[in-house]
Amino acid sequence: MALITLDTLLARIRQYHKADDLDIVEKAYRYAMKKHEGQTRKSGEPYFTHPAQVAYILAEMELDPQSICAALLHDVVEDTDTTHEELAEEFGETITMLVDGVTKLNKIPYTSKEEQQIENLRKMFFAMAKDVRVIVIKLADRLHNMRTLKYQPEEKQREIARETLEVYAPLAHRLGMSKIKWELEDLSLRYIDPIGYYEIVDKIAQKREERERYIKDIIEILQNKLEALHIKAHVEGRAKHFYSIYRKMFMQNKSIDELYDLFAVRVIVDTVADCYSVLGMVHELYKPIPGRFKDYIAMPKPNMYQSLHSTLIGPNGTPFEIQIRTWEMHHTAENGIAAHWKYKEGKSGASDMDSKLEWIKQLLEIQKDMTNAEDFMQTLKIDMFSDEVFVFTPKGDVISLPIGATPIDFAYAIHSAIGNRMTGARVNGKIVTLDYTLKNGDIVDIITSGAGHGPNLDWVKICKTSQARNKISQWFKKVNREENMTKGKEFLEKVMKQLSISNKFLEDKPFIQGLLRKYGFHNLEDMYAAIGYGSNNATRFVSRFKAECRKRILEEETLPPEEMIPMVVKTTTKPNTSGVIVEGIDNCLTRFSHCCNPVPGDKIVGYVTRGRGVAIHRADCINMLHAQQNAAEMSRFIPVRWASETDNTFHSTLYVTASDRPNLLLDLVTAISELKTKLVNVNARSGKNNLATIELTVDVADTAQLEQTAKRLKHVDNVLSVVRRRQ
After folding, report:
1. Is the CATH code 2.102.10.10 the one for domain 207-335?
2. CATH 3.10.20.30 boundaries in the chain
3. What is the CATH number of domain 6-200?
4. pTM of the prediction?
């Protein structure tokens, strides 16, 4: 992509913003350009092309100059020698805060890449709570990265695309930014399932003229009718975006030819009254399909979206969809929260927009009691990104909850005190059970008792929202803390005794404090209480504690000291029992690295460890590539090669991405079994948009067997990709 010049950027801003306060934008542009001087992207373009493009995306959404400055500067702290202090001195605290909210946590050590990604998201949401512009900048940043994703390696493309589809596209939807959401989804699909993507593109192109002619005829009829009624309106055809078609094809098991609503008609008018006048007119012209009318003007979506939707029987009996909205609604539908930001500029205190962002406050409230990054991510997926159901309080206030929510979720959504004192519920005037599934339009009245009443622990299994589960858990933790501490301590002592783990590990403060901090515990007492209560975090802690203790015991008792690794080159080279020859060294202790799991046929390198012999890595292992960039580490590399013959087998991990369906895992396991390949471990999870990710660890003799296994898995129905783990 071409570099957005300063004049081009300023010209676009001046179309919607006064021109007398843009000096700060010019300063940020020149500052960022200078800081990124000499840096290039993977495409070979100057790095500054990226922040300039991100800034222009925001300008197209008509964001304020501070946001555009932050977009221009969003990588200077992360990728140059610029400090927060320097940035604050040059551009002020507000712009620096926005930049900091978008900046990744690269300098903090994490146990896994997944943990780092989750913590980056958590940091971003905290910044978002202070200023929603943080997330708007981040979405623009992700959009430009997706537009240039072709320059990344294939594995990286799929990884970034999957994260975009699971997190950033739903987030754009939650903020009402449909224009960005659609583009993110389509771009993600192109890399996750390129065959499916281009099949849809080709099929739509084949019948484009026919469909466009059909829509054109409808538009002409509507325009003539609107003129006769003296209603000023803009009428346009709208094509469904590719990902929407893709989802419908898989969810409804239909071919693209069986989908009737690939194109829709949109009518944009000046007033709300005109919206309903147009609706009456189109229902007179065309017969509406029962159950396919939705009034999002009277009842807006939580993301601020407003429109009238109706599906009608058009000419020749072919159905089509129509959307009717005002120009203000249209801008909001396209840009969501970004469209409303300008109305808040310069104003203090609460506004109507604040109420639209109530879900962010709920997220932060839940976060206070969360002790693990994975729990935070789960909350996002359940509470923030799920489809909504709208219910009413007896006073007529609208409460938005995820589909499947119960009266328990409703009670805790109002206030934790209401939930804790709840004894029953009425829905539409009738007593219902607490596991009743709330439906759109239900009027819910919570029955409560005195202050001494508390929730039932079984409610955790019934409720849908993380907010409700968290508040119930919090109540029981507080009430039964002493009892839980005793139970937790007894349980951990029992585990340590079974595994012959000494109490010295609990007394090793640096060791134990590091583990406690990782899982969100302030001290041992909190950890004991969590174990006694049975929290997921405590389970993870105990599992990691056992693993780390066993590792330490093994290192102390069996591993040779560093001096035992001969560093003097000898004249003979013999294979050791591992099937690897270390050049110049006989009988050398070797171990295969678990980060990349090399197998015969891979190019390999040897890395002399401190006290653990020579680690064998794949030559393309990311850890080794990073080490090779460090001059001090180069002396630790030693030539290694595979022995000509070996009877050993080797672990290797394959990641399978597929459209989820019944018996998918069974079919994958069967395919491996048919090849006589040994399956060592399986880890499967189902994600957003009906995508399943399965991690399969197999025992193979060499790369040929591994490739044969991957090829067989690709032929299993619904499998989209099979990728070997690189790191």
Report:
1. no
2. 386-478
3. 1.10.3210.10
4. 0.55
Give catalytic residue positions.
Answer: 78-79
What stretches of 24-118 adopt beta strand conformation (E)?
none
* Rounded distance between C-alpha atoms, residue 200 and residue 256, angstroms: 7
CATH number of 386-478: 3.10.20.30
The domain made up of 650-724 is a member of CATH 1.10.260.40: no
- Which residue ranges does the chain devote to CATH 1.10.3210.10? 6-200
Quick: pLDDT tens for 359-386.
555 555 555 555 455 555 555 554 545 5
Please state which of the ranges 331-335, 453-457, 610-614 shows the lowest mean pLDDT: 610-614
454: left (phi over 0), alpha (psi -120 to 50) or beta: beta
Query: For residue 437, which amino acid is it?
Result: T
According to DSSP, the residues that pair with 602 across neighbouring strands are: 600
Question: Collapsing DSSP states into helix, strand and coil, what is residue 685?
Answer: strand
Q: Is the dihedral of CA 181, 186, 190, 195 positive or negative?
A: positive
Give the C-alpha separation, 314 to 285, whole Å. 9
List, for residues 178-206, the tens digit of each pLDDT value.
Answer: 889 999 999 999 998 888 888 888 877 76
Pairing of strands 580-582, 444-448: unpaired
| CA nearest to 309, candidates 238, 403, 388, 226 | 238
Instruction: Cite the residue boundaries of each domain of the chain with CATH code 3.30.70.260.
Output: 650-724
